[in-house]
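This is your field. Have a critical look at both lines of this record:
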Amino acid sequence: MTSPGHLTEEQCARYGQRTLNPEELLAIDEHIAICIDCRDRLYRQEHGDTQLQGLKAQLGAPGHRWRVPLAVAAALALAAGIAWLYRGTKPGERLTREQSEAIRTVLTTRRFDRPVILDRLVSKPGVQLGVPSRTTRFDLLRPVGTAVIDDRPQFRWGAVPEATAYQVAIFDEDFRKVAESPWIAAPAWQPEQPLLRGRIYNWQVTARLATSTIVAPAPPDAEARFQVVDREMATLVETARREHPSNHLLLAILCARAAALDDVGAELDAFAAGDPATTSELRASLEAMRSR
């Protein structure tokens, strides 16, 4: 385990020799996440003073974009515990072993694993609600092809300039209507009652014009499907948001596991300032998850 002040020589040696047990490794990782001196000692032990100073100079250079190759990322994971994986974790906060391992994996692979549920949420053109519209078209924005953490999600769609009002309808997988909005003026709506967790839904919007109505999605558009994540996953994400509100990489990983792709995008936007190179690769992974 770590000492109250800094790592002992024995701890540093065993860290370099890879002879620590999982509990000791996690404790040292948590220590070096907030102790720059010990983090430098471990890196110097593995790579020497010259490389350490060069790394610091690169990271401090204005406008520098540090793209860590896979082999280097793996080496850093072993040599310095990927202390930068804790960016956004404040002193005193503790990551679980599972959270630490999840971050290490994503920083090493530079991608998110694609949840199987997306195969049911990302639909293809040719299956849609309603009938073809021969007039103005508009798009449903979110949630589409994703899961949502909130059981009262915010629905958004593109505004129709000539529309006087909109109405949202939500259907279950058997196309039974489970919720409907009143006629509203703004292109956004949130249901008053929660939707059932773990269920997949479809939704559509009817726009009322002066003399007619139009519906989206309209043929040949695909269905607008989404899932409300189950209680267990929602609790996992909300607990992490409460305990680690600034650890946007961790939150992005958990949202990706939940297939909550819009939330992943928001967390990556927040993470981007601290590590733009990693963010760019993870955004590419996110887009691949959306497109399959």
Q: What stands out?
A: The chain has three domains: 9-86, 122-227, 231-291. Confidence is low (pLDDT under 50) at residues 63-87.
